[in-house]
Amino acid sequence: MAFPDRQTLDLDHGRISYRQAGSGPDLVLLHGLAGNSRTWEEQIEAFSGSWRVTAWDAPGYGLSDTVAPTVDAYAATLAALVDALDLPTFVLLGHSMGGVVAGRFAGTYPGRLRALALSCTLLGRRQPAGTPLSEPYLARLTELETLPAREYGARRAKSMAAPGCAPEIIERLAGIAAETRREGLAEAMRLIAEADNTDALAALSIPVLVLTGEEDRTVTPDLSGALLDALARGSARVRTAVLPRVGHAPYLEDTAAYNAALKSFLDGL
């Protein structure tokens, strides 16, 4: 199957870009800080035979316009996109930053989701609004502003993947990260810094899959543990999968294991 081209829609806030392939029940994919809709090439290929798969470019990524840098604004933008695409109910998968958006969407729009999959993600950094961005975030913005795009992408790829990751996977991750736009990255960082999805996840009663990478240095066990604790406060039917020998990009580091865990979850719905 040829990888689908980007399409665009004009929503109230501005333009949003996305890719879509397949037919069947709907599966919506949200990428992370170093991603865009190209993140999901392997998943679109694997699942579009039995699902209609839609992968967005978050605000400020791909061809998408920016929105206010809050998790509620991103969740509202996702709601506008799925409404425009006529997706009344669907399964939502969010990775890292995309998982923060997915968690807030799930809590804000009850009844829209058949199930939720959270990949290498967290509740948010839960900082007061207006708190200065952390030094690691500021350093990453400086790198994006000053380094050649390919060098920036290579640095991000190496920080995401587990040690020993195959060079061809590093190259693919680097190529995607190299497309990052400064305004998109800065606003998504602000979203993560100030988000707190504790109450949103505690309110869920749908099936939830929590995927983690055994060697993830970005979303560490304390962060994924806090997310699981929030889910345990409610009545969500939670399944967990810890993927061995992968870091923060398991969708490419071990596509077979990642897709198998997702397929098992989807098949059980």
Tell me the β content.
15-25%
Low-confidence stretches: none
Mean pLDDT: 97
Helix share, percent? 40-55%
How are strands sequenced across the largest beta sheet?
1-2-4-3-5-6-7-8
Q: What coarse outline follows from CA principal-axis ratios?
A: globular
What class would the helix/strand composition place it in? alpha/beta
Quick take:
By secondary structure, the protein is an alpha/beta fold.
Describe this entry's structure for a reader.
The longest helix is centred in the N-terminal third of the chain and has 14 residues, at 71-84. The protein is α/β, with parallel strands linked by helices and 269 residues long. An eight-stranded mixed beta sheet has the order 1-2-4-3-5-6-7-8, sandwiched between helices. The mean pLDDT is 97. It contains eleven helices and eight strands. The protein has helices spanning 41-47, 71-84, 97-108, 135-146, 149-160, 167-177, 182-194, 198-202, 221-232, 250-253, 255-267, and strands spanning 7-11, 14-21, 26-30, 52-56, 90-95, 113-119, 207-213, 237-243. The radius of gyration is 17 Å and the shape is globular. Helix content is 43%, strand content 19%.
